[in-house]
Amino acid sequence: MNSMNSPGSVSATGQPVVGVVMGSDSDWPVMEAASLALEQFGIAHEVDVVSAHRMPDEMVAYGQQAEERGLRVIIAGAGGAAHLPGMLASVTSLPVIGVPVPLKQLDGMDSLLSIVQMPGGVPVATVSIGGARNAGLLAARILGAGEGEEAARIRTAMGEFRSALRDEAHAKGK
Ligand code: RP5
């Protein structure tokens, strides 16, 4: 783990508004990209391991307490029988973004289908297999859609980021 925000940590600045959780330490090489995207937009977040199967009581408590602790979005990554994002979505009203983590078997299709096939009424915004960076960017967009100065700051930064993407694409086309 070479990021400052490894599991168990809290990002340097301010009260965390995004919780980045994963089923195992072994998910971190994939999930780190979510933390780095949040870092890029200066969004305070916490990173933790919360396994749906191996620590179910802690997982339920995490989801139930997330809102009162000040979190506004949860990013949850898991692999295989990837129940963590869906179970968190069932115990919180916060938006949950699911990241299917690819394991050695089945190339992450098992993780994807476990996360994306939620029953009606319990949504999980599912990104692509291994798409943790997009999960971080989507969390930034969700926070940027709100009211107030911090949301406006994030919207401005997202606009600049999108302009940079466009410029890069133009440069590649030349
Ligand atoms: C899942 O089992 C985790 O999210 C991880 O992707 C997978 C394997 O976990 P470890 O056996 O590496 O701890 O719950």
Automatic annotation (TrEMBL):
Protein name as annotated: N5-carboxyaminoimidazole ribonucleotide mutase
Function of the protein: Catalyzes the conversion of N5-carboxyaminoimidazole ribonucleotide (N5-CAIR) to 4-carboxy-5-aminoimidazole ribonucleotide (CAIR).
InterPro entries in UniProt: PurE_ClassI (IPR033747), PurE_dom (IPR000031), PurE_prokaryotes (IPR024694)
Family of the protein in this entry: Belongs to the AIR carboxylase family. Class I subfamily.
Protein origin, superkingdom: Bacteria
HAMAP family xrefs: PurE_classI
Enzyme Commission no: 5.4.99.18
Coiled coil recorded as keyword: no
Pathway: Purine metabolism; IMP biosynthesis via de novo pathway; 5-amino-1-(5-phospho-D-ribosyl)imidazole-4-carboxylate from 5-amino-1-(5-phospho-D-ribosyl)imidazole (N5-CAIR route): step 2/2
Record domain PurE: where: 16-169
Binding-site residues, substrate: S24, D27, R54
